[in-house]
Amino acid sequence: MSSTSCEQQTFFGSIHFLSRFLHTVAMIGTPFHIYSLYCILMRSKNSLKVMKWDLLTLHLVNISFHYFISALASPYVMLPAMAGSPFGIMKHFLIPCNVQIYMSTGCLALVVISSPVFYERWYYELFRKKSKTWGRVRKWWIAFHYFGVIGIVGFAASEAPDQAESIDLIFKHLPCLPDYFHTSPIFVLSDKFSTIVIAFTVLVLIVASEDIFFTMLTLLFTSEELHSGKLSTQTFQSQTRFLCKLHLQVLIPLPTLILPLTYAILSIIGDYYNQVFNNLFVISASFHGVVSSLVLIILHSEYRRPLFCFRRNILHVEEIQKDSSSSNAAVVFHRRHSIVVIN
């Protein structure tokens, strides 16, 4: 029997708490997502304009994962068992549990594999755009990555055990599960922990090595062009800063996925069940998309400037004249290049 206690059943471990929190996160994230998409499409200039469509693809992947976790699938997980019960919007459309879980798995895989494609694009634009050979190879390489998501989902489907038998074993192993699990459909992703962990570890190592590879290539060629005089110091610093921003854009939201995945592994290894921590596992993952949008807006001056300019204009609205015998007031708006007076 796992390390658990029936006393752990609290409001914070309930589906009601998880549901309210996830829906709140979805609503809070929506305006940030809309604004960030507007910025990518309408305010991308200079280096950002070159990366516009790749930036859009990466961000849409992050947003999709956010909505899958916070609204569409919304899994109520049962760690240390690799099982759960989705309770999101798709449940009301009678979409089967396994389809929802596989779609969520596919979104997570897309989040993981999108980063090397993103970094390769910047390297390609700087140094390999004129190379026909690289242009042909990269198309196959990118296609392999995105079609690989189908392979990952297929692998997950092949690992799914007999559901009736597995669910019965889970109920015997975890006798203090919330009542919701006894009245709702459950899907067991796998009963082979080691296989899933090894496969996921291999995927992460491959992606991380590709990220490092394209980063080092970009820095190496940039440094060579600087020393050969083909690149000015100012341009070198500008490109290096932009590359740093691209990495921060991926790295800063990463803890929202690393922390829950670390807990999941420790929970399974230690055979530890705590529904409060399970809810925090899902909540942390749901913040990935929100953090990604905020980081995107804050990092790039082209995107954050309108927000600060709007605030500055509001603060500089000054009433300069008010006639005691009239309700009309003269208001002046101080702008960077003009002054507009409204009587």
Automatic annotation (TrEMBL):
Membrane-traversing stretches: 21-41, 53-79, 99-119, 140-158, 196-221, 242-270, 276-299
Pfam families: 7TM_GPCR_Srh
Keywords for the protein's UniProt record, in alphabetical order: Membrane, Transmembrane, Transmembrane helix
Protein's name according to its UniProt entry: CRE-SRH-185 protein
Organism: Caenorhabditis remanei
Gene: Cre-srh-185
